[in-house]
Amino acid sequence: MPETEGIPSPLDITVAIPTYNGAQRLPQVLERLQAQVNTEGLRWEVLVIDNNSQDNTAEVVRQLQTQWPSAFPLRYIFEPRQGAAFARQAAMQAITSELVGFLDDDNLPEVNWVAEAVDFSRRHPKAGAFSGRIEGCYETTPPEGFEQVKAFLAIRDHGSKVIAFEPDKLQLPPAASLLIRRQAWVDCVPAQPALTGKLPGLFIQGDDYEPLLYIHKGNWQILYNPALKTYHQISRQRFEKEYLMTLARGCGLATCQLALITANSWHKPLIVLRIFLGNLRRLSVHILKHKGHINIDLPTAFKFEFYLGSLLSPLYIRRW
């Protein structure tokens, strides 16, 4: 690409991988990035954001750097503030690329993922963010009823056509495989997130939706591109009942904070009241419908925890 007065043009894309204790998972996703095709004309890099890992993540990345292809650098930064939202902010501060592709350290991209992402961003210049299909790859057989809750584990397929998400209904893509136009982030997303991601003793979700709602508020589109595909590796631990119930409640606890992002100031008290009363009703109907047997199956128990978390979510507002 052309350069101006000796200043290199910005990279086309940075693939950013936030990780916490990802020493065992990182090599596989980095191997898939080395196998990307149709990238010869692109300027790109890979950035690992070590989110305060306690294992040998840094050592693993340093070892991989010694054998890494020179065509696209592999960089490493350390973010001591725990939480995926801080890791994403650190990535945005560390790059100059026009586009950033966030991948979880257990989400493996298809071999055309990088090239397709850049091409799609050029064909849709009003897209501030976009995502694609995320297929689940399971270490063990999922429990009965898992199909009804799998979207909460970032397993998504919205069909074979490009569509626009509906942020006002909180219909948004997860950050497990998410492309964001850097300018949209810089222009719209606050430097300090309200929802920071899973922390020890505090499992509140919504940290991946928060920046997307600000981008939507800035009049950018958020799109789904079926040609982008990744494979989410789901360990057996994520099928354990305790994990799934904690996940359900954590997603619910973010409901009110997320709903306030795009609301007008005068409307916010009404939103808080509506969320509380609406989820009180949903929770009551749910209990009555199942005659108090909320643990009868996975979908029923999951909905109960989600409704309960949503009912309590006004108590967890961190930014008004």
Descriptive account of the structure:
45% of the residues are buried. Strands 1, 2, 3, 4, 5, 6, 7, 8 and 9 form a 9-stranded mixed beta sheet that branches. The chain has 2 domains: 13-239, Alpha-Beta Complex (Spore Coat Polysaccharide Biosynthesis Protein SpsA, Chain A); 246-316. The protein is α/β, with parallel strands linked by helices. Helices cover 35% and strands 19% of the residues. Strand 2, helix 2 (57-65) and strand 3 form a beta-alpha-beta unit. The chain contains 10 helices and 9 strands.
Q: Based on the structure given, which CATH architecture of the largest domain is correct?
A: Alpha-Beta Complex
| Spatial gap, N to C terminus | 44 Å
Question: Class of the largest domain in CATH?
Answer: Alpha Beta
Number of domains: 2
Low-confidence stretches: none
Shape: globular
Largest sheet: 9 strands, mixed
Helix segment tally: 10
Q: What is the element string, with H for helices and E for strands?
A: EHEHEHEEHEEEHHEHHHH
Could you say which structural class the secondary elements and strand pairing correspond to?
Answer: alpha/beta
Mean pLDDT over all positions? 94
Cα-atom Rg, whole angstroms? Answer: 20 Å
